[in-house]
Every structure is written in structure tokens, then in C-alpha cells.
Design brief:
Helix content: over 70%
Strand content: under 5%
Largest sheet: none
Number of strands: 0
Shape: rod-shaped
Structural class: mainly alpha
Number of helices: 8
Radius of gyration: 30 Å
Order of helices and strands: HHHHHHHH
């Protein structure tokens, strides 16, 4: 007899998979959307660090080549051309790309005559365009993390509200509206909000991390562009 009473009063185990299976079609659709968003976010979270690591490695190696024997090196178009010929080794580095853009612009200036200080503005614009293009390329897919972090909880909340409304509608016509009658429907609805939070929290954390990393990259590229322009002013341009 006690064992029978124990079985009758035992609390049901939490089974998220069963809650999803028992949910209404609209809630299931919401959950599917949230799962797809989460999968896309985890792809970005997994792929972006690999790309950033490759970027950091190639930028570091390019700077080693660029600054090699800086104090004894005589900068001229031949030296710049030699460095430009090695850019294929540093294809993922925004710093190398900015250097290539500056060298290309410098070559166009040199073909029109001896470079002078009046050409500095054109060179600065070329470097700035290259910086902006590289940073835009690096920011690719990052907005998806922000969008998921900001919208996933509300999408999950929509599924929850819909499920709760459906649970109360099911009470219509019943003799007694007890908690036991409405609790399963509410539990099925709340799973949508839970999945929304599971999708949003990693997305927000990853977004903040990647934004900080990109700010570091941006400052490094800007510092190199400034140094590069100073070298060109000192060694390649004439008053």
C-alpha cells in the first residue's frame, strides 16, 4: 500500500523532448526557428575564432617582414614592390591588405610623375578605404549574433504566450478548472522561452567577445596605416 501511494504522489520528471513533442504546431514552429537560429550562431561562434587566429598569425608574420631591419633599410619602390610580391602569403591579414592598397595607389601616383606631398591626401584616402573594406569584411556574420541575442527571447516568449492561450482555451467546457488540467499546457508553452534563452545567451556573450577582438584589430590596422604613411612621407615623397 505505501508503495502505491508513493507512485501516485511521485513528481513527474522533466522531459524537454516530450514537452516539445506535445506542444502545439505554432509552438513547434517557434522552437524550430529558434533551433535554426541557435545552430547558425554556433557556426559563427565556431568559425570566427579560427578566422581571427589565422588573421592574427598572418598579421604578426607580415609585420615581422615589414619591420625587418627598419633602421638600416632604405625604403624605395623596389623594396615596396618586393614586399607587395609576398602578399599572397598573408591573404587573411587586413594589415597586409592595407599595405597592398597603399602600394597600388603609390604606383599610380608614381606613374604620373615624381610623388610629392600633394599626393598624400590621395594616399590617405586609399588607405582609409582599404581599412574600412577590411573591417566590414571582418564584421561579416557578427550582426547575426546581435540579432539572435536580441530577438530570440521575444520569439520564444511569443511561443509561450501562444501556448498558454491555447492551454486556457482547452479548459473551456470543463466542469472544473484545476491546476492539474492547465499545468501540462503551460509547461509545454514555457519550453519555447527556455529554448529562446538558450539561443540568446551564448549569442550575446560571443557578440561582445568578437566586438572587443575586432576593436583590437581595428586599432592595429590604424596604427600600421599611420606608420606606413609616415614612412612614405619620409622616404618616397618630395617637397
Amino acid at each position: 500500500m505505501p508503495s502505491v501511494l508513493l507512485q501516485a504522489t511521485a513528481r513527474p520528471a522533466l522531459d524537454p523532448w516530450q514537452l516539445v513533442l506535445d506542444a502545439t504546431p505554432v509552438v513547434k514552429l517557434v522552437i524550430l526557428v529558434l533551433i535554426l537560429m541557435a545552430v547558425a550562431c554556433w557556426y559563427v561562434i565556431g568559425a570566427k575564432p579560427v578566422r581571427l587566429h589565422k588573421l592574427d598569425d598572418q598579421s604578426r608574420r607580415f609585420l615581422q617582414v615589414f619591420w625587418k631591419d627598419e633602421h638600416t633599410r632604405q625604403w624605395d619602390m623596389d623594396v615596396m614592390g618586393s614586399l607587395n610580391g609576398q602578399l599572397s602569403r598573408f591573404a587573411s591579414s587586413p594589415i597586409a591588405t592595407v599595405f597592398g592598397a597603399g602600394y597600388a595607389e603609390l604606383g599610380r601616383i608614381a606613374r604620373t610623375g615624381t610623388p610629392d606631398l600633394a599626393d598624400v591626401d590621395n594616399l590617405e584616402r586609399a588607405l582609409k578605404r582599404a581599412q574600412n573594406a577590411e573591417l566590414t569584411r571582418l564584421e561579416n556574420q557578427i550582426p547575426w549574433l546581435a540579432s539572435t541575442g536580441s530577438t530570440a527571447p521575444f520569439i520564444g516568449l511569443f511561443g509561450t504566450v501562444w501556448g498558454i492561450m491555447n492551454a486556457f482555451i482547452q479548459l473551456h467546457g470543463q466542469q472544473s478548472a484545476t491546476l492539474d488540467a492547465v499545468a501540462p499546457g503551460i509547461a509545454e508553452a514555457l519550453i519555447a522561452t527556455a529554448i529562446g534563452l538558450v539561443a540568446a545567451i551564448p549569442a550575446v556573450l560571443a557578440y561582445n567577445y568578437f566586438v572587443r577582438r575586432l576593436r583590437v584589430v581595428e586599432s592595429e590596422v590604424e596604427a600600421f596605416a599611420s606608420d606606413y604613411l609616415n614612412i612614405i612621407r619620409r622616404h618616397l615623397l618630395v617637397d
